[in-house]
Amino acid sequence: VTALPTSIAALSSDPVRDAAVRHALTGYEVRGHDELVGPDGRARRGSEALVEALSGLSFADLRARQRAAEADIAAQGITFTVYADGANIDRAWPMDIVPRVFSAREWSTIDAGLRQRLAGLNCFIDDLYHEQRCVRDGVVPAALIESSPGWRPECRGADPPHRVWAHVCGSDLVRDADGTVYVLEDNLRVPSGVSYMLENRAVTKRVFAELFERQSIRPVDRYPERLLETLLSLCPGGEGRAVVLTPGVYNSAYFEHSSLARQMGVELVENHDLFVDSDDVCHVCTIEGPVRVDAIYRRIDDWFLDPEVFNPDSRLGVAGLARAWRSGNLALANAPGTGVADDKVVYTYVPDLIRYYLAEEPILPNVPTFRCEDPVQLSHVVTNLDRMVVKPANESGGKGILIGPQADRASLDRYRERLRANPRAWVAQPVVELSCSPTVNEAGLEPRCVDLRPFTLQGGSGYVTAGGLTRVARRRGSYVVNSSQGGGSKDTWIVEDRNPPQTGASPATAAGGRSP
Amino acid sequence: VSEPILLCRTADSLYWTGRYLERAESLARLVSEHTALLVDLPTSVPLTWEPLLAIPGAGSGFDDRYPRTDEASIMQFLLANAETPSSLRWIVAHARENLRTVRQVAPRAAWRLVNELATFVEEQAAAGWRRGRRQALLDRVLGDCQQIAGVVTGGMRRDHAYEFFCLGTQLERADMTTRLLDVRAAGLVQAAADADRGADRGAVQLYEDLQWLGVLRSVLAQHAFRRSTSDPVTGDAVVRFLLLDDRYPRSVAFCLDQVAEGLGRLPRHDGAAEACLDVRLLLGTVGATASWSAPVIHDVADELQLAIGGVDDALRSTYFEPSRPATPAATGRPA
Question: Beta strand pairing status for A331-333 and A295-298?
């Protein structure tokens, strides 16, 4: 791809003209570990074709594509809702046009690691609500479970299909300065973002189609079908009616709820569309009368799901859902009670849990994490607070986080007090120097910190998204990537190797080797 | 795997999306034609902006907000006012809000078009009081509404969801045609009657046919009318055409035929079908009217609007308000 000649380029010296003639990557300064180019300035594995394409573009052209992407997003009504000044505001979804790339080879490791992790977590949750072998065998302390806000004693003894509780998991992955990919968090309640992964790809295809030439990028749009498959695998006989349950149009992820329902071809319901009869069967109100529902992909926190057993004041829930679920008439994804494994203190035990339940070494490492409830670790954290990231054990969306190196003295002191007052509520991690990716700014491409949220499914079978949602910090040097706090996003590519290594086996042999 | 279902709430929102989009198109066309007609008429012919205020009906809130009934105020009220349900801006915004909650069942392009249209109207409607800017605004609304209709008819499966969208469209169309008759036709007949007794008779008669053509154009019916008959464009002929022509898609009779057919494809349609039959019987009765004086037109329009409202009521009680067990299931049982 070569730069399109533009009339702007013919103008005499002015900054716009400089931008027009300058190649998009010229002057790009690598900061820390860069996802696109290595320390030698050459493309990383898998990024070769993208770097070639960017090198052939002028920055003005790139910026024009960025504007086209923004216009497309506005026209499509791809939004997320933020709460500000007591009102709900629909904001256009922020997306940077330069994709973030993984090589297929690296991705296969991450894919396996994510499946392994969710399998281990599901064994753990199922054990917690049954015999609690992990406590008996000393893998996790009993106190940890009962002090977790996600623990739902009402779920004890329940037997969800396949003994799987968390069917949809959105993990947060980060890469540090030496290139290692870590799991930063496991989001097992109602993780969101997957629809934006789908939208980002669609936008890139529409406004920057030529980027896809001369390379094989894995499609992402199988996800809705695999999600539906997962939901149906929870119904008796693998067949039934699935719906998506949303808190409503004012929820920050409403766009996603609607978009997933649409792509799965199932109904999007709100709580007043559903009722559970005294026969413990869940029904949805249709123009033909009540119709039975077999599986609900619920996008409401379990605490609000059923006023009969959980929060009695919930106005988002449906009375009787838990009854229907327990009696096996209704599948809930995720099952109530999965939040117990979403706790950031529990997170610190996940590698041990994988070894314990699966007898395997964890494929993906945790970020080293201090448990503040341990007095020795607490004292280390308090002493070194200015070099730590402190997180509440049970919050999401980046709420309540302290980034030590960027905090002032008063905040550090305040957090020291908080940690000492309620150590169970906090974990601390050394600062991870997040990797960066080139991002379009007014002046040119600049490095911005990124993370990745891939989505893992587990039901009758498993699935990992081809990539995930890459989130980007808004400001240079910032580690905050949450969209609720001004972060952006990128299309994420899994790029097949240009010259796949010779396996030596012919396709026929490979196929014949599979077990039936 | 399982038969498609349609939620009560989804049916409701699709119906109102259909209604609001049709209402936006009708209002845009009416304002557009009224503006064009005013340009054609000499100042001696008594045609003002005030009749347009009767479109949304009594108690629409105009008097509370605007001290004068001039063109600028009326255009602000009908196009740009964000608070009153009679304005184009409000109507389009509510088409979007209804579609937003059901966009998963409508063609993707429909959502995109409605979303873009609502954004455009929000930004541009305030400029519509100027004649110089008005036509571009209205043309865009008309074009977009027709494009949306095309996307829906060309891309949507003919299932129950589609039926409810169409029921909304057809009922709104029938309703708007009666309102047009009420407002414009009755006004014209009255003006002609007044002129018979007054001095301006010549000017009024000279331009009467032009005005009746304007009425036809307001519902896109000029060409269709001409193809249906070689009779001159008279008040009686136009009124009969707009009420009773069985081939013209915006006549009241045609719309109600469509509603009856659509209802036939829905379950549990007895109540709504009966209400629909009432409207068609009423049309049959008024078909015998020999002379359309202004009071007669008013009365017929009122009766028709009430009868059409009856269909709307029946749809709501049958389909939109879900039936569920009267008392919530036993509470307090352990899970």
Answer: parallel
Are residues A262 and B105, on separate chains, in Cβ contact within 8 Å?
Answer: yes
3-state secondary structure of B244: helix
> Alpha helices, DSSP H only, in B198-324?
201-218, 222-228, 235-244, 252-264, 270-286, 294-315
Which helix (H) or strand (E) segment holds residue A48: the answer is: helix A48-55
DSSP B174-230: HHHHHHHIIIIIHHHHHHHHHHHHSSTHHHHHHHHHHHHHHHHHHTT-HHHHHHH--
Test mutation, A259, A276, A278, A286, chain B, max B CBs within 10 A: A286
Model ipTM value: 0.82
pLDDT in tens, A128-165: 999 999 999 999 999 889 889 899 999 999 999 999 99
**Highest mean predicted confidence (pLDDT) among A85-89, A202-206, A472-476:** A202-206
Calpha distance B238→B213 (Å, rounded):
9
Burial grade of B64 (CB within 10 A; 0-12, 13-18, 19 or more) = exposed
Q: For position A82, what pLDDT does the model report?
A: 75
* Closest Cα in chain A to B103: A258
Dist. CA B219–CA B228, nearest whole Å: 15
What's the rounded Cα separation, in Å, for the pair A511 and A119?
27
Q: How far is CA A25 from CA A39, A437, A489, A491, B137, in A?
A: 14, 12, 19, 18, 43
For every residue of B95-133, DSSP letters joined together read HHHHHHTTTTTS-HHHHHHHHHHHHHHHHHGGGGGSHHH
Instruction: Kindly report the pTM of this predicted structure.
Output: 0.84
B252 touches chain A (CB under 8 A): no
Backbone angles phi, psi at B320, to 5 degrees: -90, -25
pLDDT over 90 for what percent of chain B? Answer: 57
